[in-house]
Specification:
- By secondary structure, the protein is α+β, with helices and mostly antiparallel strands.
- It has a single domain (4-107), classed as Trna Endonuclease, Chain: A, domain 1 (3-Layer(aba) Sandwich), CATH 3.40.1350.
- The chain is 42% helix and 21% strand.
- The protein has helices at residues 4-25, 34-37, 39-43, 67-73, 98-107, and strands at residues 32-33, 48-49, 54-60, 80-87, 91-95.
- A three-stranded mixed sheet has the order 3-4-5. It has a two-stranded antiparallel sheet with strand order 1-2.
């Protein structure tokens, strides 16, 4: 039987591959895991490469986890840091700083019409 740490690591790697494949389906055909592509990015808490304007971190954890801590450990450059988080029976969410959310809104060409 696999140890708890090993199975958690395998779960995390599987989640990275899942999100990588979703990016590829959206047209980011060069998307790779940083474990494969770039040790430097992997060390900087970035899990996926070639994701356009985003630095992507993937978390598949059940225990208490801090988006604030993870985001603060990611690179501080022109890219928007996002953290994908999956929790069993709770679904998936994406976290980012409020500032990055507003930057992303500014990048959208056409605002939604008022209802």
């Amino acid at each position: 039987m696999a140890s708890k740490g090993k199975s958690a690591r395998q779960k995390g790697h599987a989640y990275e591959r899942k999100i990588k494949n979703e990016f590829i389906e959206m047209g980011y055909s060069d998307c790779e895991t940083s474990r494969y592509e770039s040790k430097k990015l992997d060390d900087a808490k970035v899990d996926l490469t070639n994701t356009g304007i985003f630095h992507v971190q993937c978390k598949a954890v059940e225990i208490l986890w801090s988006a604030h801590k993870t985001l603060s450990e990611m690179p501080t450059d022109e890219k928007i840091n996002v953290v994908f988080h999956k929790k069993n029976r709770k679904g998936e969410v994406v976290s980012m700083t409020k500032e990055d959310f507003y930057r992303m809104i500014e990048l959208i060409d056409e605002p939604c019409p008022e209802e």
